[in-house]
Amino acid sequence: MKSNLSNAEVNNLRSELFDTVYETMNNGALIHGIDYVEGHSIAGIWHSSNRVGDDFLKRREAFLWILEHLLKQGRIKLHKNGLILESSIEDQIDAFRRAWPNSDKPYPNHPDADFYLWFFDPECPAGIAWRQEDGSFEIAD
């Protein structure tokens, strides 16, 4: 899948979220940027997309890139109504791309509604489940 992000933006996301160590825990575990949202709902991934700025379409691309990266790493799986999706990663990302609202105000009758609500709307293709230490996945939404 081709992203609309520049190489510099992708490199920045990779560096800030996956490569840079921000802390080391007492047990020696390294903490990367993405670890700060681990266990959070899929809206936490949206929050992390702000590293490319405020442009809604750029943030969408960053969100999809992060989501795809986490899926490929096996750190997450996507689910719908508690059932883990079995389709390919590409199909799962494409489902988000097709369902994605045209603006950051997807509820015209509620103009003050925050975009984060969309991730809990039935229109959103999936929620997120994070891999646990024992290899199981825990649904976060």
Give a brief outline of the structure.
The two termini are 26 Å apart. Helices cover 35% and strands 16% of the residues.
Draw up the topology in text.
Blueprint lengths: L6 H13 L1 E4 L5 E3 L9 H7 L7 H18 L2 E5 L2 E2 L4 H11 L27 E5 L5 E3 L2
Antiparallel strand pairs: 1-2, 3-4, 3-5, 5-6
Please provide a written account of the structure.
The protein has 4 helices and 6 strands, in the order H-E-E-H-H-E-E-H-E-E. The chain has 141 residues and is of the alpha+beta class. The protein has one domain (7-139): NMB0513-like (Orthogonal Bundle), CATH 1.10.3510. The strands form 2 sheets. Strands 4-3-5-6 form a 4-stranded antiparallel sheet, with helices on one face. The protein has a two-stranded antiparallel sheet with strand order 1-2. Helix 2 packs across helix 3 (56-73) and helix 3 (56-73) packs antiparallel against helix 4. The two termini are 26 Å apart.
The CATH topology is NMB0513-like
CATH architecture term: Orthogonal Bundle
Radius of gyration, whole Å: 15 Å
Rounded mean pLDDT score: 92
Q: Which strands sit side by side, in order, in the main sheet? A: 4-3-5-6
* C-alpha geometry: globular
User: Spans of 5+ residues with little confidence (pLDDT < 50)?
Assistant: none
Q: State the helix count.
A: 4
- Give the assembly state of these chains: single chain
Strand coverage percent = 15-25%
